[in-house]
Amino acid sequence: MNHKQLITGLIAALLAVVGLSAPAFAEVSGETAYVLNTLLFLMCGFMVMFMAAGFAMLESGMVRSKNVATICVKNIALYSLAGLMYYLIGYDLMYGIDEGGYIGSFSLFWSPDDAAALAEEGANFDAGYAATSDWFFQMVFVATAASIVSGTVAERVKLWPFLIFVCFLTAIIYPIQGSWEWGAGWLDAQFGFSDFAGSTLVHSTGGWAALVGAIIIGARKGKYTSDGKINPMPGSSMPLATLGTFILWLGWFGFNGGSQLALGSGADAVAVANIFANTNTAAASGVVAAMIASQIMFKKVDLTMALNGAIGGLVSITAEPLAPTMGLSVIIGAIGGVLVVVSVPLLDKLKIDDVVGAIPAHLVCGIWGTLAVPLSNGDASFGGQLVGIIAIGLFVSIASAIVWTVLKFTIGVRADEEDEVMGLDRAELGMEAYPEFGSGGSQRL
Amino acid sequence: MNHKQLITGLIAALLAVVGLSAPAFAEVSGETAYVLNTLLFLMCGFMVMFMAAGFAMLESGMVRSKNVATICVKNIALYSLAGLMYYLIGYDLMYGIDEGGYIGSFSLFWSPDDAAALAEEGANFDAGYAATSDWFFQMVFVATAASIVSGTVAERVKLWPFLIFVCFLTAIIYPIQGSWEWGAGWLDAQFGFSDFAGSTLVHSTGGWAALVGAIIIGARKGKYTSDGKINPMPGSSMPLATLGTFILWLGWFGFNGGSQLALGSGADAVAVANIFANTNTAAASGVVAAMIASQIMFKKVDLTMALNGAIGGLVSITAEPLAPTMGLSVIIGAIGGVLVVVSVPLLDKLKIDDVVGAIPAHLVCGIWGTLAVPLSNGDASFGGQLVGIIAIGLFVSIASAIVWTVLKFTIGVRADEEDEVMGLDRAELGMEAYPEFGSGGSQRL
Amino acid sequence: MNHKQLITGLIAALLAVVGLSAPAFAEVSGETAYVLNTLLFLMCGFMVMFMAAGFAMLESGMVRSKNVATICVKNIALYSLAGLMYYLIGYDLMYGIDEGGYIGSFSLFWSPDDAAALAEEGANFDAGYAATSDWFFQMVFVATAASIVSGTVAERVKLWPFLIFVCFLTAIIYPIQGSWEWGAGWLDAQFGFSDFAGSTLVHSTGGWAALVGAIIIGARKGKYTSDGKINPMPGSSMPLATLGTFILWLGWFGFNGGSQLALGSGADAVAVANIFANTNTAAASGVVAAMIASQIMFKKVDLTMALNGAIGGLVSITAEPLAPTMGLSVIIGAIGGVLVVVSVPLLDKLKIDDVVGAIPAHLVCGIWGTLAVPLSNGDASFGGQLVGIIAIGLFVSIASAIVWTVLKFTIGVRADEEDEVMGLDRAELGMEAYPEFGSGGSQRL
Q1: Is residue C317 within 8 angstroms of chain B, CB to CB?
Q2: DSSP string of A300-335?
Q3: Do C265 and B429 touch (CB under 8 A)?
Q4: Does pTM top 0.90 for this prediction?
Q5: Maximum distance among all alpha carbons in chain A?
Q6: Could you give the ipTM of this predicted complex?
Q7: Which domains does chain C have, with CATH numbers?
């Protein structure tokens, strides 16, 4: 032990006697760390919030113009409802769970206790961050899960029944499965299941709810003809779809980077930086892999494949964006991009009508990303990951099926055939998204 | 008094003798706080800057395609002029005011004194933040006020006269009323008027200027027929209007969060976090309330009502985003959303033609939000709030009326009837916003 | 010497004996500075990343609708390839250079050494920031340079050859010239060349590559008729072009602000704040100057000139956004705005077909901004700046010409005439960007 260690050790020991941590010779002080941790949640939170706009633009670009205004209403409404539901019940249901438990507490109206904590004598910032900043960050995540559903079931689901489904998803279904892992429930405690930023908890959860919805609601009228043909229904605006994808990519830095949950030390800063780089690298290789795969499979590059390749790469790296080297991130993202290109025609063969390709990008790549965690993270096992994927998949699918089915046989989930042909914008909202351009799409099937 | 308090108290007392504050055992150091405060201004400032893009998209989506390029020019030009005017004269006029005063100093060319301050021996960062970071943050606010006007008077106001109005608004009108409260002038000193982030100072100010402009300029040709009918003139692109609203929502975290003016302590971090959550919650309940209200009143959901519901909720919480509980934020935002839905047809009855619905969202909800401050903030009184609303309303309305009227009787503010029918894009810019789509809208009224 | 200085001096002296820096009475601690520096890179980095979306929207709005999907593919693919190439080889080639050297190291697969550094005993954060955060920040810069090219050569360059060019630009050409200055190579060491955030290193580099490409590939079919007429080919969506410009403006705060490379002290915070204000001011005056210039020269305001005026102002201030007063920033930006308006018709006279006006905004203003550095920065000389401009201009032009020419005479760079008339979207991607609006633009020349 040298002089330096001797003296700093002595000072620390003396201070410990009176219950203080070592002075900030070169470290981050407790209060500074509290501020920086909170800042990470808020900054990454507003980036994830903006993903709501990304989904809105991606979906606006991928539906036909006769349904664009409706998809816009759905997106702003679902983001709003997610926030209200998570305040009303979701957050406590997700994080008010006993360690190793199966379900959290059903208390209403979450309310932060920061002010009380800070007002106490000798407040020492041990909580690490402002409670509300964590609420905000977790709230934007639940909105993301709901956004995934709206794209898949677009162009035929009715507005209010869809929004009721969103309420159940964000208030009950998402928080319960989330509590199993991020709330430190049974999946975390018994199986060491590992999902850093939510390949399974957010993306597959949205994907399962979307898949079950697509099956129960059925395909769009005319999408699959009786003689086995697939009728392409190209989206109305490719630049909006592209913009949406770029916004999602931007938001994903917050999604994965904020999931480090701390920026109060040099080690945290290094972690967030590595997460940013790995996230970008996986997305980039997802794009390139999807372009090459579609050039090989379809003899041409398809823009929507490139866009979904980016999302596929992003979802794939989300379960473990910290541990991989950049080289491994390239591989994980590339496989995600290829999976998207392979899965899209497969879904069509099964006559599952996914308007924006959300199931390949979010569900398939979510599973892949979760399975890839043990490649770089020694704390995770292939078996544990599989248990988590299956448990959450079963729970979300069954719960979603119940809600969709009850809606179907009560108020109905599907627009009338006539309304679907006319377009939901005129049928449900009495308006057009582009009233001056051509037919506004409303005369088309 | 325990050991810990004894020792830290002793150290603090000893240091006080030589004029130092207590060492950073667990606190944020003075320079770190200076950096964090500055960072808050810069981060929140760029978010508010992006609101200029939000307004540009919202307004582009809400006008007919024949006027889209013109509204784009107006938006980028007004943001630019606001920045130049605030540098030229506005900032000093707003903040160079004596406490309790009525008007600030008319000095030209604001210039920061940071470098000088830091170069002084023993610089101690007591200023709290870089002077220019505050200028930047305040500058993007004045641009917001100007953006509100462009939407209301769109589709018939001429380009250059509009921009001259913007110069007066951002150089003179906004700074004078702003100085009364944020510059610590008479409204703040005598009446305890409270407006945290600008429900009145920014949003109502823009709203009054817009209302007076709409009355003096008159409605669009054909909007109100002589037999009392209202001719709907639907906007050209609903997804762009939706995108604009999401961008505004995003920027509002900076608008309200940055108005805490500090991030240099744990308490500040808690405050900013609470502001983020309340801001989001009020917007979310504004959307849902507006959707329900329009379903009840008009028997259908209207996208533009949902979008303006978000803005109405945001404006409503802006006067006091810190003190309310999240539950109260739900209520404040919901009332804002309903006020929008109620006010839009009211304005039409008065034949006041507000193209984007800015007056309901920014003026009506700005008044409501300002009146709601005493519900959670004991330092504000209903009477004091009313004085502020009326004083600023009168001043901005009269000053705006003078400028609009002088413009009207000199160079004219309104496009020729022929140009209005043809569209301002071809008339004023000689171009079309969408030259390849349908008629480009130019053959329509 | 007063008491305070005596005591703090004593403490510092004692600590120095054991090799520690002074305790954080009022300073930023070493680890806190490390976190804040890293945060600046990450925050500014994601803002610059979003510029990729800005370029995509600007270019989508400025090309005709028959080429919009292709320009979207190009933009997301070039951003992806830039990131992969910079990881593969570019970063080491740029920063692995000896001081005063001419070329960096050709090592493959950059990999950060943060974890190793932090794991060392007595890690002291002397590196200043997480290595990967710097990689991320520099990576988004190289993508910007590539984005500039895609706009100029749009509507006639083939997809895959363009992407091969991007690989060479981002893996080899950009890093080599960048190493000369930012890697501390010969331009920095011998000539005191100064380019704070890349007027020359990023924007002119992109501009030269675009100019050479435009000359070698040739103008769009029908753009310049044999009788000397210029056929205007107006862009398909002005609001998307406007949105793109606003996004670029937003991202530029990160571009210039992050180039301070540190936020770990009060002085750094002041610097970043001044950079934000100067950046905004130059852009604002660029817009106003371009509008006035186009009103005078063409008797009308042109939206695309206003937009490119913003970019011209931004590029002009980029070489030195820190040292100028705000007044000088107004002048530098205004000259940039005027240069854009003057250069656009000049290029047309030379029959150089630049679809989005990238050469005036990025190359011409990049040269102007670099030459303007000595006006405020005494360390730079007019001669040294000229050497840098010429050296980089020659290198990038010659290297780009070689790559473009080899591509031209091997796989070909230009779409068939038939494909160009039909539009690249149908020819290369087999899709349309706006399949429901009018003709989708595909019947037009």
Answers
A1: no
A2: S--HHHHHHHHHHHHHHHHT-SSSS-HHHHHHHHHH
A3: no
A4: yes
A5: 84
A6: 0.93
A7: 31-105+136-223+245-429 (1.10.3430.10)
